[in-house]
Structure formats: structure tokens, C-alpha cells
Amino acid sequence: MTQAISHVDAARLEQALLAGIANVFRRRDHINAINVFPVADSDTGTNLAFTLASVRRAIEGEAGRSLPDLLREVADAALDGARGNSGAIMAQYFHGLSESSRDFQVLDGKRLAQVSAAGARSAWSAMTNPVPGTLPTVLEDFADELLRVTRDGVEDIRELFERGLARARKSLAATPEQLSALADAGVVDAGAQGFVDLLEGIRRYMRSGRMPRFAAESAPPAAAGEREHAAPDKHRFCTECLIEGDRLDVIRLRERLDALDASSLVVAGGERRARVHIHTDSPGEVFSLCGEFGELRQQKADDMTRQHGLMNHAGSVAIVTDSAADLPAEEVERLGIHVVAVRLNFGDEEFLDKLTMTPAQFYARLAESPVHPQTSQPPPADFRRQYELLTSHGLDVLGIQISGRLSGTLQAARRTAERVDPERIEVMDTRNAACGQGLMVLWAAEAAAKGWERVAIRTRLTEMRDSFKTYALARDLSWGVRGGRAKPWMETLARKLRLNPILTASPEGELVARGVIAGRRATVEKFARYLLRRMDPGATYRVIISHTDAEADAKALRKRILAGHPQVDACWVVEASPAVGAHAGPGTLIAGMHVWEPPEARHD
């Protein structure tokens, strides 16, 4: 006869949670495959795995903690790692468990039921518009069953848990009856499935006493395009941040966010730290509002429209780059290019390049701010989200990053690729930036759309790398000196002699001067002549012209290039990234060009 379990202490809870987390990891791809609500973006399993991976690290990081200390660290870790709607709700659930068990060193049956109920209530409170038939419903039904069974006099934790799990399974099976989106798709709620999978892992551990192995790899993902759902027609950015402060007014924060034109709002946490999850078309507005309540950490905004496009992704390779690449927005959309935002700082304020800080906002801020802006590479988590999402859809990934001599972005991307899946992800150094980097990305994306494999794209790009040229007309080198991209002597010489240096990327990827334009008059015309002299009259070119708050000059440059070289396949004018503008300053013109050979002409 199996011996009854009278209580749960910190050591037992640690092992139970680890067993449950291992099962969620194992089931991640199934959870992704049934994800249709609130957005069919196939990432609920990945988001729960990220959230629970943070919990796992907290559990394994220290031994001998009391139960209140353990649950507090679990709650904090869940807030730190929370991803997506379901991850934020789970974080709030753990927060409720922690808050309600401060005075308990062990949990007997009645206490376990009480803290589970408190966790469920806390999860409901995190949502401004709770939807029955989702994760909080199953959390609540599980807790209600524990309360009912303890009132009937059951004290054995094992029996109590078995009865609660049975109720959770029934609740999960009933979610389509409460939510039409689930019924239409013929699935149960993905977040609720993740919670039941957590419970199933705990149950197996309680019955066998054996800790499951954490799988190095998940099960094979469902094929991209297996299911079709409508892309979000509004609120396209899944926006999240962590707020830290003293006596955070979470209720007021939730009210303020709820007044925005947004959806899927979840605010998890308490007075010290809060995690915000919201779907919006204006991530910058969300971050600005949240900044009024405390210090912002872990800002991110993922484009759910782009994620939905993975369902119908052309080819087997996804192209990832960083926002230092100057790319035409319409081509990014057409070719499904994935852009990881460089971080931009004005003092203590952090922004996502091109996303929460547009070029227009940047130059307006630049004109009035006494603080010089700084840039920083994307954190590894930003690359990891992209890589996990893309590989989970069965895609290989080729990262095409800014020169490693100009930024640490390349190394951050490479290190993350090695940790996520080095067999399916590789990252190459463009030894370029801005428009030249953008042209390399466009060529790679065209090749991927034509069915080229990852290794073939990387090999051909490496062969052609030196043919992608970038030239920048720098009218004020003082910005480059401040940002560490130009030498002080270059700025002094240029200013005294009234010279406009023409900068380019060297074969090693460093920024070097390759010419000058004298004087301050007719610089656009002179720059156009300089570029035309470097174009083969018999070749067809693609050209990108970007500018830092100098649109009229950029259009004038395009006009002269098109008039001077009629064999141009495409010539785009785009706004340079604010991350580029921070080092180039206003008024800079950048031109990228290469001889255009369509990928299909080289595919064998």
C-alpha cells in the first residue's frame, strides 16, 4: 500500500516543480501547434518554456531554502522570464502562491488548497478582460477541486492531487465549449494545456519517484503552413516589459494601460516588480506610460503579423538581420525578413531602434536633448526569441549582421545561435553596415524565397561580399567621434579644411575614409558624380540610399544616379536607422550599391 503524503515542504516542492517543468518542455511543440487564442501565432509552448526555464534556473541555483523563500524566488524568476500572455498569467499565478504562503514552512492538504485558490484568484486579477475557457479557468477549477476535496476530509496530498488533476483535465477538455475560437479550430486552450502538462509531470514524479530527464531537443515541430488562421488586423505588436520600483501601483498601471487602444492586457506582479504584456500598434506609447511607474527592464515588441506569415513562408530558410541594416519597409514585408532591434539610449531611457524610436522622433529628441544618444547591441534574449520561433516552424536560419568591427551585435547573435541550435542556425559577418548590409539581406531573402538552401546562400554571399559597397557622405564627423566610430584627427582636419569625408567599409569591415568632397556647396551633385564613377556602365545595379534627416538631398541624389546610370534595377530611398543616426548625425547621406544578379540565375 502506498504511504500517504501528509505535507509538502520546500525540498518536495522543488522536485515536483522540476518534474512538471520537464514535461512542459517535452510537450512544447504540441502546445505551439494548438495555439489559436488570443492570436494564432504558434508560440504559447515556447513562451511557457521560456517562463518555466527561468523558474528552473531559480530552483536549481540554491539549496536549503525555506518554503516562503523558495516560492518568492520562483515568483520573481517567473516574472523575469515571463513570455507571452500565458507566461505572464503563470507568473501571476506563482506570485499569488508566494504571497499567500508567507507564513507557511510546509503545506498540508488544506494549506495547499488555500494557496492554489489564492494563485488562481491572482491570475484572474492580472487580466483586465478575463476570458472564460482559458488558462485562468483551469487554474481556478483545479483549486476549487482541492478545496472541495479537503472539505470532504481528504488529507493525503497524493490523493488530493490526483482528484485536482482529474478536474483540471475535464476543465481543459471543456474549454472549446466556452470559447468559439477553440471550437472552430477543434483544439483546447494552449495555455491551459501547458498547465495540465505541468500537473501531469508532477503526477508521474509522485507516482514513480523518478525525476525525468530534461530533453536537449524537443519533438519535431509541426510543418509551417499546417493550419491557417487570420493574421491580426490590429494590435500587431506583442509588447512586454518588466517594471521595477518601490510600492508600484499595479492597479493604477493596469487601469492606465487598459485605456489605450490595445488588447490582451496582462499585468502580473506586485509592489516591487511587475510584468506587462499587451498587444498594441504603438509599443513606444506603452513603454512611455510604464516608465511613469518605475524603472523599465526587458523591453521587447514582437511583430505578430510577421510571426503569422511563417505559416506561409516561402522556402526553407529564414533571414534574420539587425536594425543597423537600412532596408525598404515594403521589401521587409514582401520577403518576410526578420529584424532584431538595436537598443538606443538617451541617458537612462532605452528605446528599440525603429520600433519605439522612429527616425522622426529621434531627430526631434536629438535637437532638444542635452544627452548624447548611445547605442548597444540587442541582448541575447532578443535573438533567442527569433531563433526559437523560426526553428519551431521547421526553418533554417541565416543571420546577416552588421560588421563585427563596428558592433558587438555579431558576437551576441553567434553566441545565441550556438546555444539554441547550431545545426540549423548560422550567422555571418557582412563586414558592412547600413545600405550595404541591407542589400546583402535583400539578396539573401530573394534567394531564400527562390528555394535556395542556407549553406548555398551563405556561400554565395561570402563570395560576393566585397561587391556590396557602402559610401557615406559625412558632413559632420563630430557625431562619429562621440560615438567612437571616427578618429578625432579626422574630424579636426575635415572641419578646418571644410572637407566632407566619404566613408566606406574596408574589406575587414572597419569604417575608413576613401575620399573627400571639398566645400559646403553642391555636395549632393559632387557625391553623385563620385558614385557614378564607381559604377560599371555595362552592369545593372541595385541601389539603396538612406539619409539622416535629409530626405530632400536623398531624393536629389537618387534622381542624379538614375539619370547618370540608366541600368538600375531598383533604387530605394529610406530613412537611416536612428542607431546609424546616433553616430552619423543629421544630414548624412549613405549609398549602398551592388551589381544585381538575380538569385535564380545562380541557382543550380
Can you put this structure into words, describing what you see?
By secondary structure, the chain is of the alpha+beta class. It is 48% helix and 18% strand. The chain is built from 25 helices and 17 strands. A six-stranded mixed β-sheet has the order 14-13-12-17-15-16, with helices on both faces. Strands 2-3-1-4 form a four-stranded antiparallel β-sheet, sandwiched between helices. Helix 3 (44-60) runs parallel beside helix 5 and helix 23 (523-533) packs parallel to helix 24. The longest helix is centred in the N-terminal third of the chain and has 19 residues, at 190-208. The protein starts with 9 loop residues before the first helix and ends in a 9-residue tail after the last strand. The model is unreliable at 216-228 (pLDDT under 50).
